[in-house]
Amino acid sequence: IEEQQDSRLLSILEDVHYADVAEIANEIEEDQATYLIKLLDSDKTSDVLTELDDDVREAILKNLSSKEIAEELEELDTDDAADIVAELPKEIVQQVISEIEDRDHAEAIVDLLRYEENSAGGLMAKELVKVNENWNVLTCVKEMRTQAENVTRVHSIYVVDDQDILKGRLSLKDLLTTSTTAPIKDVYIPKVDSVNVNEKPEEVARIMSKYDLEAIPVVDEIGRLVGRITIDDIVDVIKEEAEKDYQLAAGISQDVEADDSILDLTRARLPWLFLGLIGGVGAAAIMGGFEEMISKHAILFFFTPLIAAMAGNVGVQSSAIIVQGLANDDLKGSISNRLVKEILLATLNGLVLALVLLFFTWFWKGNFPTALAISISLIAVIVVAGIIGTFTPLFLHKRGIDPAIATGPFITTSNDIFGILIYFWIAKLILGI
Amino acid sequence: IEEQQDSRLLSILEDVHYADVAEIANEIEEDQATYLIKLLDSDKTSDVLTELDDDVREAILKNLSSKEIAEELEELDTDDAADIVAELPKEIVQQVISEIEDRDHAEAIVDLLRYEENSAGGLMAKELVKVNENWNVLTCVKEMRTQAENVTRVHSIYVVDDQDILKGRLSLKDLLTTSTTAPIKDVYIPKVDSVNVNEKPEEVARIMSKYDLEAIPVVDEIGRLVGRITIDDIVDVIKEEAEKDYQLAAGISQDVEADDSILDLTRARLPWLFLGLIGGVGAAAIMGGFEEMISKHAILFFFTPLIAAMAGNVGVQSSAIIVQGLANDDLKGSISNRLVKEILLATLNGLVLALVLLFFTWFWKGNFPTALAISISLIAVIVVAGIIGTFTPLFLHKRGIDPAIATGPFITTSNDIFGILIYFWIAKLILGI
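The joint structure predicted for all components is written out below.
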């Protein structure tokens, strides 16, 4: 279909949502996608561009002239436009910006470029409806109409004073129901949540989802209204956070997808596997140190994978619960309470599991002392693993490091080593060798 | 402070956001929380109730009369009210409903109770602004004002025909800018995304976040408008989904939090640990079968934790990427391509790791053939683990089972066993024993 039948293609794509066009563009060849983008109206393609995979977008933009890129940018909200400009090669940025006809729009984009990507400023858009507290309702409605031209969706009407300081918000409902001559001062709601431009995206997400907000105004250091963040951007932040935590827990270090190249995937996976290798070599070295036991108690060696697996699993379980509690900000109580709780919990789990193991080993080899030694070691290993799993994320969090890295290979590896060490020590002690 | 100083308490809490009051109520004693709720206006407490932890809410509701509960429900949107009613003991539901003064509100709540919790119907609220396509703009604005009384936030104005069939939507902007006598028929936008009442919440979340929607209308089987879902409910769905996947990956089977009781936490964690125990016992049994090798090649046994850890890590990595790809619906290409890719990837990772291991083992024990055997087995184990990790979630997904259970202890355990079996087989083959 891709060959020349422009008009047919156009009529087919006309009714397709931009997100679906983006999905198609992601899957076809680069030059075909470029062709498609050039064919369609910039009204639609601009939205398509924001939805494309990074690498596809980069390839397409390379084939567009500065003027064509500028046209796309004009159709976009300032936050999306700024994101695209930030990805452009430095040498063409200036030219692209100068080609944007709407100077206010260009200024807003340039303003947004100043903010760090990983902050509220990097997320916000300049499009918003704001009114001065000294206006009356009629002026306000008139002003709103002009402003609303540039704003796709009106979330809230923000009220500012002459210095642009955010004072409150106005509800559409109140505006519709009060007399047209009433001054805004008398009708606006002086309570409004806002975030500072330097706030972290995760914190903005937490505030917005806690208070069920659909948009939040962003203010600078002295309280001036500089932009607004909408919930759809926050949905992306929440999803990315969750994906990152999930990948960290699974031992994948970069943000990769199943369809990335083998080299990218290797780079993301190899470091964690390497950590596992070091852990395994450590475990082997420990076992080598207990080699003299092998002739009398070979069975001890058979259970090392079990011990390692249990230590790893318990560690991941405890740390995952703490990581989630930290992320949701709902951890209560003191550290020592948590310690007691985790020890009780681990002992309970350990007792049940050790009892099962005791009977199995006893029947298998008929040697009760060895079976008992293995089971008691298992309890000790589980308790230590639980403690390490609980405290590693708490410790990292206190030091300002993302506690999510504590789940996954990191905790598994360290627990493997500790587990096996404890296991052989205790077994040696009990069996008196 | 909690003792009697009502007026002081009231004045303090007056300016506190309901989500913060809920946080306080979650932390204090049950009877104090009940006291607090009774003290405050139902206008505020109703919102507090929706934000409380399940167990705290249950305890508080038990201490309220049917009339008091009905008052709270009247202040809530129908979706939140229905959620609370669904949690009430059956015997008092009827009484509570009959105490609700606003009959339309009561009817809407009862309607919502009919829908399954895990569906679009269970998520939606009845509050929405709808207009008939046969009205003109003036009637429409008048009608909207009355309807808007019951709706906290107006997202979209939905247009229906005489049979209540959803026809399209109306933008506030267009409404403000067209002449008041124009019929709605001529100004509405006939394209509107909607979901069926039986749609799964995850699918609704996918659609809303893909198309950046802030509200989506819900229609029944014949296209009648029955409710709407807003993005704040979807944010909760997305978060819960992410938490569930994360917990499954970490081997925690129920939705628990760090502050739940030890018994709850044990119930959530023990089953997966038990799975790990069985895996460990299986691994021990396999090693027992190779016991005759222990005298000559004890070193083989030292590396079993390493082999098990590698098999587990690789399995979790591959499955996590597939699980995420399935969740985001962005897996492309055929199964056989994916197979080839995973094998290449695993081989590449395996080669690098095996090479490191080879040198380490060689220098440690000075026995090249054994070192080579261990390293070659490692490659084989990594490749098999990668294949199992890739295909288990794909297989589960095809069978309609949540692929997320494939990550975590499940894959770790099976890969431990397979890994150790393959390791000893290949080592035996190479060393010719």
